[in-house]
Amino acid sequence: MFLNTHSQYSLRYGTIDIKDLLNEAREKGVHQLVLTDINNSTGCMEFIRLCRKAGFDQEDVDGKLIPAYTIKPTIGIEFRRDNKLLYIGIAKNKEGMKELNDFLTHHNLGNLPLPDEPFAFSAAYVIYPYGSRINLRENEYLGIRANELHKITGKPLTKIKEKLVVLHPVTIKNKLEHRLHKYLRAIGLGTVLGKLTENDYCQQDEMLIPEGELKKKFENYSFILSNTQKLLDSCCMDDYTFGKKNKRTFTGDEKDDLSLLTKLAVEGATYRYGKNNKEALSRVKKELKVIAELNFCAYFLITWDVVCYAMRKGYYHVGRGSGANSIVAYCLKITDVDPIALDLYFERFLNHKRSSPPDFDIDFSWDEREDVQDYIFKRYQASHTALLGTMSTFKDRAIIREIGKVMGLPKSEIDDFTDPTKDQLHKDNIVFNKLMFINRMMNGMPNQRSIHAGGILISEEALTYYTALDLPPKGMPTVQWDMYEAELIGLDKYDILSQRGIGHIREAVQLVLKNKKERVDIHDFKSFKDDPNLNSQLKAGTPIGCFYIESPAMRQLLKKLTCDNYLTLVAASSIIRPGVASSGMMKMYIQNYHKPNDVKYLHPVMKEQLQETFGVMVYQEDVIKICHHYAGLDMADADILRRGMSGKYRAKIEFDKLVQRFFDRAKEKGRDETVTKEVWRQVSSFAGYSFSKAHSASFAVESYQSLYLKTYFPMEFMVAVLNNYGGFYQRWVYVQVLQQTGAKVNLPCVNHSDSVVNISGDEVYLGFVGVQGLENRLIEIIPQERKQNGLYIDLEDLIKRTYLNLEQALILIRIGALRFSGKTKKELLWEVHNHLGNTSKPIIGKELFHLPSKSYNLPSLESNLIEDAYQELELLGFPITLSMFDLLKTGYRGDVLAKDLQNMEGKMVKMLGNFVCDKTVHTVKNTKMWFGTFIDYEGNFFDTTHFPNSSPIYPFKGKGCYLILGKVVLDFGVPSLEVLKFAKLPIIENPVLQNFST
User: 186: which of 209, 317, 839, 915 lies 20 to 30 Å off by Cα?
Assistant: First the structure.
């Protein structure tokens, strides 16, 4: 009888979670529901699945097992436009749901408003609200509420008698939730509670009630009840099944898929390992057997196809994640990590007992990913391909701000309420308590649909059997549910991701070819990792600009480990992650790394398996190895146990059985019970922090590729870093590093600069991108016009050829972009008004005859380097003409430099540094401390530690140079400064402001 049920997926409208909805149905004796969320089908598959799960449960009654309470699931969509109910679509079957999803998808992707009447569906019903329509198709009905029955009393119903059905919307669980519903509506409509009208929110009776109670409301209209039941009885969702929904084949035939995959893998093994490498071929054969048995041939081939497309286009990619455990993936060039060399286990990626699907993470450059995505959509049919969605929820203190706004509270009061340290102050505040009550009710509810970071689904069937598709701004068709729902339905995602580090590498290779006429094989990783010049940079901790290894924390770790090889870098990439340091793993690893002979192993197996990582289970693969080699679990069970210990295995009973099997098998192998308990303690404590070795190895490969380019082609590499919007640090840091390579870095120039940074020999010109206030149109047109029609002659020529207005001309003059003219900035500033007057409008149109501008005899106009530096600070964010040290009022540069600190442990020193970045951390006592990074006068980095007892609430005051007094401490030989006193130094005043004030 309930044809119109909303769940929480009716975003900012419905209040009931689907599980709670089914529990309510059970309590109220309801055996059939139609889930019809507003303009989406997000919860439909979850609803069907949970209804079926409830039906499979069994109850023991008088010693007999009988099926549990069953609820027949029916699904549909409620269609609204501008907050007004248009009609409700109810699917008769799977094909009917596709019709409804296709209809909504058509309007979503075309950004079209929903029409007053939908398409003519053949397998779906349409329910209009009573009184909104007269002429009805065969599959169309009028839904009438119990409180509307008076509208048909005493009226002739011959024409519509068979078309009337019960309409009792379900939106809330109880009257209390009606208040929550109003808050949701106010948030959704962007208004305050007091401005809501009755049309903005649901009626108070929109709750699930016992079916008998609903029938009683319609007892005088039995034909309406009959029509409703007849409609419900004709609906059946039995055609929906779950599991293996991905595109089934690549070639069109499963046998041909396996044949092609085998051929490619064997050929790839020859490329990677040489001819007749028995170990490699044996492992390839073993993997192919599992891949075929688990129907993953098409998944591998589609990923290979995507990578091949990228390589044909000249795109660079990195295959990472657990997929790098596969030798087949390595042979297909999906990844560049050798699983044999690194002793990686295929079972970490794919095994018969793995419950959740694996996926490949493929990274492309940030500006090439979209083209790869476009290829996938075209190659594998748009109706079968979509981006994966995500669902953001109302959470944390952000909800308080939303609730406060709809309550009409002033910003200052909301700010107070969002500060957790003030909760006790507000405990007796009625408004605060009311707000927090709604906050608790709303917490965790779905809020908005969005796009997954990189997941793409490619299905065998049209995706609209399972979901309608959205089109987020600047996005591609996107499913309306997340990766967890996709997994439960049976769809395995392909992760097509992007990162700027790949852009650095790709463009650097291109620039080296253009500027040095040298071709770089960036995939020649085997020679990179053994290059002493690269490894000496790692050891020195100076890889600024290099992917994943340039942050202050990583640079310090590299120096603490005296890292000079690939395997140590792989380990460093794992132990640097958040949580590891606080667990004590990082410190233990560094200690053991420097004193490997002092490591005490519990058992010979532990030494055999963990000698590479000095007794520390750094990697997830280490956990698997110990479970397998010490306790005797097979690889698949070992991986499941590892997942369970890291919180990713949901079936607790099965997990507990595996734990017991760990002890039982260890006992069978004759292991000492006391030792086994300690082994288990170590395994279980490390498992939550360990990281995929394959993932770390992928990162390390990319780090070496960056490092190779930075070592041998530093100028081109740093230009590429700047053009791909840097990395961890601000832009000025990379400009300074570029200057240290010997490059002559020039300010933007209209006759030499492009939109981005360019390089010719050792001459580098900053691009127009990054000049504050310069219009995008000019950023592109200035270099484009110059390349087409020659160099600009002077300011007048530039104005006429680019339609420059006064405001934009002033920016270019002040940044020095017209210095080629031989005139000073002040002369040009005088001249520009001669051409443009004081108008901000550009000169449009070509002149037939050139009329020379009037010339004037100007007084002597002095230039000032300080003034230039201030203009660069304003327009670029950093000075080029002078350094920040040159701008200081003092000539003092500190008592010591960064290079001196190594030999000054325990001494108090005074240093002067240009502020780079800082990081705030919370101590165990919930106080703040800070870590700072600075560059000294010679351009070398040094790091500082600021304890709360010696620092103000926030010690850093933005960019600039600081005078620092502190004690030198060494941690595993790496110096830093424990700060006692700390102050930002003043700089010389801007001469323009000085002149203005006088």
Answer: 209
Q: What ranges make up the beta strands (E) of 396-501? A: 446-458, 469-470, 478-479, 494-499
pTM: 0.84
Question: What pLDDT is attached to residue 848?
Answer: 45
Element (H, E) at 683: helix 673-687
Interacting residues of 995 by C-beta distance below 8 A, sequence separation 6+: none
Give the residue from 325, 342, 728 showing the smallest Cα distance to 566. Answer: 342
Measured CA to CA, the distance from residue 387 to residue 470 in angstroms comes to: 9
Nearest to 139 by CA among 158, 152, 120: 120
The C-alpha atoms of residue 341 and residue 531 are separated, in whole angstroms, by 18
> Distance (Å, rounded) from C-alpha 713 to C-alpha 511?
9
Could you list the beta-strand ranges (E) of 744-892. Answer: 744-746, 758-760, 763-765
Encode pLDDT of 487-503 as tens digits. 999 999 999 998 888 99
CA angle in degrees (0–180, nearest 5) for 622-318-549? 70
Looking at the DSSP assignment, which residues form a beta bridge with residue 79? 87
Phi, psi of 403 (to 5 degrees): -65, -45
pLDDT tens per residue, range 7-19 = 999 999 999 999 9
* Helix %, strand %, coil % of the chain (to 5): 45, 15, 40
Q: Tell me the pairing of strands 64-67 and 385-393.
A: unpaired
Rounded to the nearest angstrom, the gap between the alpha carbon of residue 415 and the centroid of all alpha carbons in its chain is 28
CB 664 within 8 A of CB 632: no
Residue 465 near residue 94 (C-beta atoms within 8 A):
yes
Give the pLDDT band of residue 57 (cuts 50, 70, 90). Answer: low
CB of 36 closer than 8 Å to CB of 4: yes
Two tokens at 41? 């089908």
In 815-864, where does DSSP find H-type helix? Answer: 825-836
Q: Give which of 797, 796, 816, 802 is closest to 865, Cα–Cα.
A: 816
